[in-house]
Amino acid sequence: MPTTTWNRHHILSLADFTSAEYNAVLQTAASFQEVLSRRTKKVPTLQGQVVANLFFEPSTRTRSSFEIAAKRLSADTLNFAAATSSMTKGETILDTAKTYLAMGTDIMVIRHKDAGVPQAIAQEMDRLGVKVSVLNAGDGQHEHPSQGLLDLFTISSLIDSAQPRIELLAGKKIAIVGDILHSRVARSNIWSLIASGAEVHLAAPPTLLPKFFAEYLGATENSQRLFTHWQLEPALENADFVMTLRLQKERMTAHLLPSLREYHQLFGITRTKLKLCKPNVKVLHPGPVNRGVEISSDLMDDPEFSLIQSQVTSGVAVRMALLYFIGSGKVSGI
Amino acid sequence: MPTTTWNRHHILSLADFTSAEYNAVLQTAASFQEVLSRRTKKVPTLQGQVVANLFFEPSTRTRSSFEIAAKRLSADTLNFAAATSSMTKGETILDTAKTYLAMGTDIMVIRHKDAGVPQAIAQEMDRLGVKVSVLNAGDGQHEHPSQGLLDLFTISSLIDSAQPRIELLAGKKIAIVGDILHSRVARSNIWSLIASGAEVHLAAPPTLLPKFFAEYLGATENSQRLFTHWQLEPALENADFVMTLRLQKERMTAHLLPSLREYHQLFGITRTKLKLCKPNVKVLHPGPVNRGVEISSDLMDDPEFSLIQSQVTSGVAVRMALLYFIGSGKVSGI
Amino acid sequence: MPTTTWNRHHILSLADFTSAEYNAVLQTAASFQEVLSRRTKKVPTLQGQVVANLFFEPSTRTRSSFEIAAKRLSADTLNFAAATSSMTKGETILDTAKTYLAMGTDIMVIRHKDAGVPQAIAQEMDRLGVKVSVLNAGDGQHEHPSQGLLDLFTISSLIDSAQPRIELLAGKKIAIVGDILHSRVARSNIWSLIASGAEVHLAAPPTLLPKFFAEYLGATENSQRLFTHWQLEPALENADFVMTLRLQKERMTAHLLPSLREYHQLFGITRTKLKLCKPNVKVLHPGPVNRGVEISSDLMDDPEFSLIQSQVTSGVAVRMALLYFIGSGKVSGI
């Protein structure tokens, strides 16, 4: 186990993550990945602690991943789903969070359709001087840090499974393809990939990657490693990894897309298009996949190219690492 | 730990609670409150027992509180929500309860929109001669005993945190403000506060505290300690504690209330109105709060006056005590 | 504990169950029934394993039974309900299953409104070469093997509680009454009862037991022990056990039934009709019961005749046995 001290109390965004933090997560996730391969996959680290999954926006997949991660660490879990909650009774979100605080919750895993909600709750917890940690499980179009970290872990442990570290990505060309504009996954990935020294190429139709967005991104100090394209091909050329993003079908009805078929023709990933990339290119997708839209159905199931299943598995190990850090507040032997 | 023997098998109502029972709950909850402040907050008391939360009426808050309480005692929990259940398939409530009995449930925590359902289930269990205990988590406009007990614990442990006991409330003036007519919380609180020797002042508009209700209450032997008011001020004068009740917004559409704004003006608790009370008055609310209706928003967040967060925390300790009593059937060392 | 080796990896259907397998389940369920009568009802068998209840079709009753069974074996459980899942986001069922696989699920308990879904998922798991087991918790009108096994356990342990075994049913006359055509429970029961050497008499109105169905069944090698009737009486005559099936009320609106009252008059089980059976006849029903339709209300509650509660209890023990076999892959001391 690494011996770094972990100081971050809440995990809300990757925008200000340090290399040391990235590496602490990657190395600890690798340790947990090893635990998960044993017959008994539980460790007693968070015994007696309560992890509350406050999912104001429903997501079975992400909620299950956090729930398994928490249970592997022997925590007790509580699930809150907005639909059946007192949210419908007019209670504010901060009041809901404070209720779970008062019940003895140690870690709140929060998903909300609006950007900034996890941060607002974290600020309120800090203002109250309590030790509860907040983990952003996706807020609007802002960030989805655990997804960014599990993608980073998936890629870096593919390169060196024993010692995954952010430096392994330096100089790699990584394409991010799809609805960049509305994607919190893209944002979290951009932060971690830029920090790793990779070269990041965004590709999307203009409606999903508007000029102002490109300019905003280009204006940063990272402009020399971040590129935007309104066509797929230049992003794919010699790419080491291709990250596809989920396409919300409602984008089409909002007239941002002509048709799913045309989208697939122009920006969908297929075997033919992958020939532009490096020979051993790998494809990622945060799931759930619209088969035949973002990615062709056969490619998705081909373990030679697809890292999709590996991402889901990484998700549990990375979330165990995150819960471990903010739950125990220190890095010492598992 | 107290050495009293606990004989009550089901917890359905506070109407016939004895002082000894109130004090057993208060003292045991205090012990559990202490357990909850430790790093490892679990005790093995109910290991292997199954606590089923049968919530025919949804309530995330109360269900989570019971779920945490059960898990702290190492019980296994099952959640049943009417919406997704075979209730929609025409099964009767008693049949549902008997199914959970047959599966091996040890304690049933039951909420239902109709008064009397938990009692009917408890009677059926007794008729069948089984050891299952029923805990009423709110039935229609009848009672919500664990809420009454947690309010009692909140108040009495504020006065003496080491030894909370019902006698500490003797002679205190306590105002209960709001929709008395439809409130199961008010009914449970009236029983426990009268039993404690407190002076209870109910305040509400006539539509929410009709004459027949006042006469019904006034006709009891408790008439000398129970007072009803159609105005707020006489209830607040020199009050030690003010209990506000949740206002169901549907009361307004049922023409029982003119408008929320007018309600707040007449019966909402504000800093100004609190000046009528004792200087160190405290305010309670069972939650979820309609901010700016039953209570002004700033007052709710002011720890000098508000006990709302403390009530939620007390809820877990009190529910642990109740599950402990009916689950283990005896009072001996935790 | 029996010393047989268990080789079946998935439990999808009873059609090809061997006598040795039936008896292994019955004897192991009897051992677990004994565990359930102890004060501490848990065994550590599946500690650290994850049992995911993937209920694409909702069922609180069956899901709770599996959840209790898994928790008694110390497994961690995950509940997935289609309504709140990414199914609504267009993900395929196989992709959902593969996501739960990738998260580290050890056993998938699957219910779906379409026949064949659990089998399709099991085949996919085998194709992928992974060790995950699939347990069919009801698929369309196909099978509900754990229900068939719990009915077998209920009957055989009534005859010999210490050593329930399939041979005990040889020569018994068992009537299955109701909506045979649409019932997965009937199909699973037919397989197990025929295998036991019992004489099985199906009784239903022609719309719910059409000629082609009778001919299909009659054409098998079991024709000499399987009989179909369009009237109730010949099925009941001298019967040892009467299995009633749940009637879906939508059958009536689909014009397959005249009225519930007429159905009850012709095929509903009452005390009077039971006089045709053996004196100590017992009645079963998989639940939830439409009181006064499939069975008269007073009969359902009469422990002299009704095995309904006993079936629910058996369900937990039988499901523990099934999870134990496919979770541990061997039969050795609990």
Features:
homotrimer, 334 residues, alpha/beta, Rossmann fold, four-stranded parallel sheet, 13 helices, disordered C terminus
Your description of this structure?
Chains A, B, C: One of its GO terms (molecular function) is aspartate carbamoyltransferase activity. Chains A, B, C: Residues 171-325 form the Aspartate/ornithine carbamoyltransferase Asp/Orn-binding domain. Chains A, B, C: Its EC number is 2.1.3.2. The structure is a homotrimer of 334-residue chains. With 334 residues, chain A is α/β, with parallel strands linked by helices. The first copy, chain A, folds into 2 domains: 19-142 and 315-328, Rossmann fold, CATH 3.40.50; 145-312, 3-Layer(aba) Sandwich (Rossmann fold). Chain A contains 13 helices and 9 strands. The first copy, chain A, has helices at 19-36, 60-72, 93-102, 117-127, 145-159, 184-196, 211-218, 233-236, 250-253, 260-267, 271-274, 297-300, 308-328; strands at residues 50-55, 76-81, 107-112, 133-139, 173-177, 199-203, 226-229, 241-244, 282-284. Chain A has a 5-stranded parallel β-sheet. Chain A has a 4-stranded parallel β-sheet with strand order 2-1-3-4, with helices on both faces. In chain A, strand 3, helix 4 and strand 4 (133-139) form a beta-alpha-beta unit. In chain A, helix 3 packs across helix 4 (117-127). The model of chain A is unreliable at 330-334 (pLDDT under 50). Chains in contact: A-B, A-C, B-C. The interface between A and B is medium-sized, with 25 and 30 residues.
